[in-house]
Specification:
The protein is an alpha+beta fold. It has 8 helices and 8 strands, in the order αβαβαββαββααβααβ.
Length: 244
């Protein structure tokens, strides 16, 4: 009988598994990615903050980064406001947001209807290449959550995805059949690369596949290490880092 996989023997994994860690996302795929590397005690607290930033005002990179940061801060402050004495304060909050950016620069999120879903996938096919941007934001309180201040770090990663062409394996009836599976209804861009969508729609990718799934895992661990183990702001030297 095959022995079960063991968690990664990394200090950050060991540390976080002894603490209260909140994943500010309802995505089962993000939870699964973190569990695969050994984070077993995740508390799922999705953000309730509306994702209503004006896409005409924000460029794609700023849009996805701001949305992820807003989710992270909203869940953290809400958790403190609803604090129970019997439950420890969170040691880490992880939030993320994923968007699709079409070749002509439009931001796509989840399809709003079946008709929208069909239009979305046909457009991605007809333009061949699109970009998947996932921004991850992590936050850890300084000392403990009852004292002012926290460290927050974020990173946005890009993966290029290429769909098959209509005349090379991706005619309309394949897209229509895929939409009816409903696999992509809860996913940015309307498809799941780890499922049927990845097998039928996607020809190739350039970059990280876990980024397309919804969380760049290696970078998430790196950010978690920084906010958890480096409390001194002067030691932070990554572009885009911040302490508050």
């Amino acid at each position: 009988m095959r022995r079960p996989l063991q968690p990664l023997d990394l200090p950050i994994i060991k540390h976080l598994n002894s603490k209260r860690v909140i994943l500010a996302s309802a995505s089962p795929r993000r939870k699964q990615l973190l569990q695969q590397i050994g984070l077993t005690n995740l508390e799922i607290t999705p953000s309730t903050k509306p994702e209503d930033l004006d896409k005409k005002t924000y460029g794609p990179w700023e849009y996805v980064a701001t949305t992820a940061r807003n989710k992270c801060l909203e869940v953290y402050t809400t958790t403190l406001d609803t604090h129970l004495a019997s439950i420890p304060d969170p040691a880490l909050v992880i939030a993320a947001d994923t968007i699709i950016v079409t070749r002509d620069g439009r931001i796509l999120e989840k399809p709003r209807s079946e008709a929208d879903h069909l239009r979305m996938l046909k457009h991605l096919r007809d333009t061949r290449m699109h970009r998947v941007l996932t921004s991850v934001c992590v936050l850890a309180p300084r000392e403990d959550a009852r004292h002012p201040g926290y460290d927050i770090q974020s990173h946005t990663e890009e993966t290029k995805v290429y769909f098959w062409e209509e005349g090379n394996g991706l005619p309309d009836d394949v897209i229509e059949s895929y939409v009816k599976t409903r696999e992509g209804v809860d996913k940015a861009g309307g498809y799941g690369i780890q499922g049927i969508g990845g097998m039928l729609l996607v020809e190739k990718i350039e970059g990280s596949v876990d980024n397309v799934i919804g969380l760049p895992v290696k970078k998430t661990l790196s950010l978690a290490e920084k906010v958890t183990f480096q409390q001194d702001r002067d030691e932070y030297d990554d572009e885009g880092s911040a302490s508050e």
